[in-house]
Amino acid sequence: MTENEIAKIVHNKYQKVLQTLGVGLLEKAYQTVLDYELQQEGLRVESEVELPINYEGIVLDNAYRVDLLVEDKVIIELKAVEKLVPIHRSQLLTYLKMSGKRLGLLINFGDTQYTDNFKRVLNCNNPAELDK
Description:
Elements: H1 3-21, H2 27-40, E1 45-55, E2 58-70, E3 74-79, H3 86-99, E4 103-108, E5 118-122
Parallel strand pairs: 3-4
Antiparallel strand pairs: 1-2, 2-3, 4-5
Helix pairs in contact: 1-2
């Protein structure tokens, strides 16, 4: 399954979770339910994945955690905030670079306007690479 195929499934499940639960819950609640929904779809999902950081040639374990890792290909960073800001995208892009993954999904469950709550963040030069 390609990153783009995974992203389509995640988007559909995101919409279902948002429609069912609405806004106002803590991020962890959305993470738990989205994790469940993706597993029901047959996807392999890991939650709170600890990844190391390479700092000056030294590998430091458990330096950061990604909210969800789907099929060992797509990182999902969840928020439950009023509005996404540029640092949220930067955080996800850093996770992608540190892990070598090509696609991240930044998902916000906190915006009552439902605008701009699902963002794709790429760590590759050509988006067509995600279909391979």
